[in-house]
Amino acid sequence: MVCMTVAPPAGEPTMDPAAGTLRGTLRDCTPQGKGLGRLGEGDIAFVDAPDMSRRLAEQLVARRPAAVVNLAPYSTGTLPTFGPHLLLDAGVPLFEAAGSGMRAKIRDGKKVTVTPAGEITVGRKAAGTAQPVTRTEVDATFSQAQRGLVENMEAYFGNTIEFIHSEAPLLIDGVGAPELGDIMAERKVVVVSPAPDTRERLDGLKNFMQEYTPVVIGVGQAANTLADMGYAPDLIVGDPTDVAAENLRSEAKVILPAEPDGYAPGLERIQDLGVGAMTFPAATESPTDLAILLATFHDAEMIVTVGQPVELDRIFADSANATGTPATEPAALLSRLKAGRKLVDSTVIEHLYTVESGAGVAWAWAILGFLVAAAAAILIAGLGGDGNFADNLVDTWNAIATTVQSWFK
């Protein structure tokens, strides 16, 4: 009898039968990597997906990986997502909380080993440890997230009802909003709020700003960002302690958010600088929401928001902070509902102004180059022939036309 050892087909994982250790090709499926498109059966996928969505899980299941290692927890306990359930139902071993430090150690296409305890080796180097995930843990976290979501939503919409009770005149008819004349009437308005990507978003709006010259509202510290980038805000809304003195002294109208009793934080700074300002009393601490309402009540044609968007998932996930105030205030939802169809996020405008280069553009440039060359040749011939300019021009044109016709015979 002859004993033979058969190697597993390329791409399939190997497993130590005694220890259950998985070995396969690493695929970097994090947002920074491009491994999802190359992920195949038997590969080991590395993702960075807290509260993994059902959509991502379906994409992974379809490629039949040997295991999925998540740098983040599959569920943070805030959103009851179904992603980890789908992967476990498909029989895919899961590991989580490998940590952000793992990001620098993973290399797409490298050989990787994952032990049952979650010890990870990339190539021949130990890369870190992740926690094995069990169905019991996933079910428990899912139930906790469901309970938390219900409690959070009950509190959020309870606060929303209270805000409507206290600010119905403002929401319905703009009672209490400062009068600014027709500065925004039938014009496009850009509301710029502080955010980590504010500069990047403004860069994407350059063409829009040049074409339409919209009214620009700087919210809080974003007024400084606008000035640094060469934009002069028409209005500044926010606590003046967040805004540089030279920007407060500019031609922009300054509007201070105030409490319902009329007290406006930062009023002393305005008085010290000798700057004129108006107050906007409302039961919200968000100057962005007040800026959106201002544009709405002053008949803006379009309101483009630059800054942190308000999204349903974020409202779902927001838990009360130390002061007991939700991170997304009810005013954020109501102000955007009031603006209605006028409101659009800046990223949408960016996409409209993005032109993808392709074969059509290349052909257009080629044709333009040919026409310019032909025009130059005709002009030179017209000026340099034996006859007068008109005769030389006609002779040159006839010669070119005859040559072109011969190409199609």
TrEMBL record:
<dbReference type="Pfam" id="PF12555">
    <property type="entry name" value="SteA-like_C"/>
</dbReference>
<feature type="domain" description="SteA-like C-terminal">
    <location>
        <begin position="350"/>
        <end position="401"/>
    </location>
</feature>
<feature type="transmembrane region" description="Helical">
    <location>
        <begin position="362"/>
        <end position="383"/>
    </location>
</feature>
<keyword id="KW-0812">Transmembrane</keyword>
<protein>
    <recommendedName>
        <fullName>SteA-like C-terminal domain-containing protein</fullName>
    </recommendedName>
</protein>
<keyword id="KW-0808">Transferase</keyword>
<dbReference type="InterPro" id="IPR036759">
    <property type="entry name" value="TPK_catalytic_sf"/>
</dbReference>
<keyword id="KW-0547">Nucleotide-binding</keyword>
<dbReference type="InterPro" id="IPR047795">
    <property type="entry name" value="Put_SteA-like"/>
</dbReference>
<keyword id="KW-0067">ATP-binding</keyword>
<dbReference type="InterPro" id="IPR022215">
    <property type="entry name" value="SteA-like_C"/>
</dbReference>
<keyword id="KW-1133">Transmembrane helix</keyword>
<keyword id="KW-0418">Kinase</keyword>
<keyword id="KW-0472">Membrane</keyword>
